[in-house]
Give the backbone structure.
Amino acid sequence: MAPQLLNAAALRPLLERRLVIVTGKGGTGKTSVAAALAVAGASSGRRVLVAEVGRDEHLPRLIAPGTAPVGYAGRELLPRLTAARIDPYAALGEYLGIQLHVRSAVELVLRNRAFRQLMDASPGWRELITLGKVWHYEQMRDPSGAPRFDLLVVDAPATGHGISFLDVPRVVVSAVRSGPLRRNAELVEEMIADRDRTLLLPVALAEELPARETAELVAKVRSELRISLDRIVVNALVARPFPPGLEDLDAKLARLPSEPLWPGLPPPPVIAACAAHLRSRYELNRVYLDEIARSTGLPVVPLPFLLSGIRGPEDLRRLAEALLAVPIAEAA
């Protein structure tokens, strides 16, 4: 039996959250969604930090094409919008420097090749220190005592790694009895489990494999994690290809004579084949949009397919407008 659908109209707006963690199968556009949400937050007057946790930087070129990398220190790319890449070793050095009060010695150890090989073979520390840095961002205050950032958006690892990424603090708390490591893991776990401030936002495509993996992700989150999950973003949906009353336009084109109608245009059979492809893509998207809503029991947020891709903030604002709309329970 399919889960009961939530009331889409009753959901809290995305921008009311303090921390939004964006995940999804690789290739679904989760980085674009993270960037669009960050731009939307900054445009609304909020102070936003958007952070990615991968080895390479992708967010800066989406938000401000042509800009230099922002690195671990981060940099403001647009008014009220700061971007950063959380490097686990840099975060570890920062944490140990604070704890041990000997930053120069810590940096010397972190540059040691043998130490890095040992750390690379150790499971879980990257995820914990990365989430610890997110917690640190969430705790930052300005001179007046107000939060330094009103909204934090994290471009998290892809679906396969996303669950283990978010589950590490719980594992550490259950395995470590006392000490600074347990205390810090408890703080991170508390942040993730706080449904008032933290939301997990999966991104999918309306296709068979992403739809299936999204349903599996939602099932695992519900059974293994304590994190709020209230909607699914379905990216790159093809728009209705034909105007009302011409739903069979491709079939009508296919019945025309094969000679070109006007000089320079392809012959009608070629145009008909292209039109049929658009209609099939649209219908496929509708089927899997419904399937994602049905299999997860969650409202869906449909985002349009941008023919020219994302070339800067204006395209991100187009995505943001759809991203912030009231989700729907099933395909229209």
Observations:
- The longest helix spans residues 268-296.
- The mean pLDDT is 87.
- The radius of gyration is 23 Å.
